[in-house]
Amino acid sequence: MCVVIPALNEEEHLPEAVDALAAQTVSPNQVIVADGGSTDRTAEIARARECRVVRGGLPGMGRNNGAREAQGSWLLFLDADVVVPPAALEQALEVAEAGGLDGLSCWFVPDSSGWRVRLLHWVSAGYFWLSTRLRWPHSIGGFILVRRELHEAVGGFDESVMVAEDQDYARRISRLGRYAFVRRPRVVISTRRFRSDGFVRASARWLGIELHRILLGEVRRPLFRYFDEASGKQGDAGG
User: Fold this and answer.
1) Spatial separation of the C-alpha atoms in residues 132 and 125, rounded to whole Å
2) Rounded to the nearest 5°, which phi and psi values hold at 210?
3) Segment 104-118, tens digit of pLDDT
């Protein structure tokens, strides 16, 4: 398994994410960090932890660039601010093999004790699980496991999708392979958008993006300010 992490100015979060990978019961063969031009110590930290560093950009581009350099039959796309429990990779592979899956994403919990944020994430994870079973596939960009051959068959992430590219990716891989949103493992995702933007604004953005996708299709214009200054920095479950 190769893990691909798109990152930009992630010196605060990347060490914990990579260290959590090193503590896995099933270790990845390779960790690639797709650096979108960081001005902090992101690339230095990645190299110090024996990660390969490649050129990144927005998350879709970073994931695609990383995947081109990857080795192995499984790819795991992970965000720099996502922390995986020690048995997460082993669990994900076991679920995929047991279910004959070609790709999966998983349940997520926030790194917050606030009841509103925790409730919203529980509802969102439940919606992702149910909608996927009803053939409207969802994922979290922070954890997508996929067979390499399926990733290549769909042409990777669509770099013209400006936000929620992970949801578009889940929809496309589900057409050619068996995909599921599963209850285990569960990963911890960052809620920094809720801290920076506020609960109401961040929640409204999530809802607006999903409604746009349902009614108008994928977001290919800069309608939602989701990323920082043409960066790859992101957070939360929305792409």
Assistant:
1) 11
2) -65, -40
3) 999 999 999 899 999
Cα gap 181→206, rounded to integer Å: 18
The total of other beta-carbon atoms located within 10 Å of residue 27's CB is 13
pLDDT in tens, 11-56: 999 999 999 999 999 999 999 999 999 999 999 999 999 999 999 9
Distance of CA 112 to the CA centre of its chain: 18
- H/E/C letters for each residue in the chain? CEEEEEECCCCCCHHHHHHHHHCCCCCCCEEEEEECCCCCCHHHHHHHCCCEEEECCCHHHHHHHHHHCCCCCEEEEECCCCECCCCHHHHHHHHHHHHCCCEEEEEEEECCCCHHHHHHHHHHHHHHHHHHHCCCCCCECCEEEEEHHHHHHCCCCCCCCCECHHHHHHHHHHHHCCEEEEEEEEEEECCHHHHHHCHHHHHHHHHHHHHHHHHHCCECCCCCCCCCCCCCCCCCCCC
Verdict on whether the full-model pTM lies above 0.70: yes
- On whether the CB atoms of residues 102 and 150 are closer than 8 A, the answer is yes
Asked whether the predicted pLDDT for residue 233 surpasses 60, the reply is no
Which residue, among 137, 108, 113, 136, has the nearest Cα to 124 in the 3D structure? 108
| Residues belonging to the chain | 239
Examine the pLDDT at 194 and tell me if it is beyond 60. yes
